[in-house]
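Every protein is a chain of amino acids, and every chain bends into a shape of its own. Below is the pair of lines this work produces for a single protein:
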Amino acid sequence: MSGDQIQILVAMCIYLVFVVAIGIFYMKTANESTDNYFIGGRKLGPWIAAMSAEASDMSGWLLMGLPGVAYWFGLSDAFWTAIGLAAGTYINWLVVSKRLRRYSTLAGNAITIPEFLSNRYRENKKVILAIASLFILVFFAVYAGSCFVTFGKLFSTLFGMQYQIVMIIGAIIVILYTFLGGFLAESATDFMQGIVMIIALCSVLIVGVVAAGGLTAVLDNVRSIPGFFEFFSIAQPQLDASDIQKLDAAGQPLFGVAGKYGLLTIVSTMSWGLGYFGMPQVLLRFMAISKSAELSKSRRIATIWCVISLFAAVGIGLIGRTLYPSELLKRGDAENIFIIMSTGLLPTFLAGIVMSGILAATMSSSDSYLLIASSAVSRDIFKGIFKKDATDKQVMLVSRITLLVVSIFGIIIALDEKSVIFKVVSFAWAGFGATFGPIILFSLFWKRTTRAGAIAGMLTGSGMVFIWNMLISRLGGVFAIYELFPAFLLSCLAIIIVSLLTEKPNQVILDEFEEAKTFEC
């Protein structure tokens, strides 16, 4: 290992030690009760709520997946995705946050999403609880796997280490501090990691523009590639039989005629924003803030962070194509452009700190996924269904066992180093968005929604994500849209139809719905 690599590794190790120390610091408080361990006792301030929500939401996808898309296909796909996510972030904080904070407190002081939905419909037989918990387990195992892929790619690219070994080491570190400190440790580290992420993105963006000879030079270069710097076209890298981009006689990558990027594709891409309404790691921050009145401040913080970070990530991909046109010739390798630019343009130790931004993004998401998955089993299934008199100690034990099991599944998913982070994340994002997004919105804003409608909506949304992704999208044409969009719409339709065909909720549920509109907490 060279001297430069050692400096980068030292900077990253310092960061990792600091993160684990936070977990140890919060260990005593977290273990006082399940409320503290799973939702921090509803004590988050506006800054921590906002920054931890966004950091846990974006994951390593923000620093690797999104720049990789911009590097490979150009502006359109990455730009419209960013627009959808920015709009979804703002609307979610504006519309959902306060109502969910109030309603979850009123509905039996629910501290998980499955528990809130179950309490909202006054379930005796915990069908909604079980369905919601099981889907959280499935999709968060996939999500955790995507985070571990990021960790493995980062260290194998930087230091030439064996991918599988460093991926497992990264998973162990995340497990350790989540295991110790729970939601409080997760939120505190996510706040810090959100700061590291935005600094890293902006630093690499600015240095990249300077290294490329200025903004004019970057624009001249990307405009020379067919469809690369267009809102309604998409670049088409020419590939050989091994899916490696072809080069011309001068060693420059070859592109074919620009592809069309029509209105349906734009709507499909922007539908990423719909996913926010069903993201448990974001919704929990709404529920965990100390006062609902502080959510307006959190909304402004979260939106500003999100907009700056997303468009910096897109810019890095475009600048990377100017600086390193033939460096990354495989679709999966394109996701390393942030790493290449950081190590190639920044002083060594500073590059190590910026690389910690990828660690920050990865860890801030994977800890949320593991904790929410473990709460789904321990709090919702174990205590909510099988052992209603379970003590806090028993729930915590089951939670930590589940955390280890989900981590193992995530590691198995991540063993393939050829995994494309963007694809893995997009599937899990669609799963959560279509399963939980519609029913969260209808539960909060349509009092005629029934328990049967809720169940129908969740099953329809989640089922269509699998069916559309694995079967219908293969038909191509208009069917090749992002599965979240049709699955979300069909889930909404199922909720409305089944709710109208079944008996309306009883008066107790209707009264609680009205009270939640103005309930102060």
About this structure: The two ends are 55 Å apart (CA to CA). The first strand starts at residue 233 and ends at 234. The chain has a mean pLDDT of 85. The chain has one domain: 3-36+47-417.
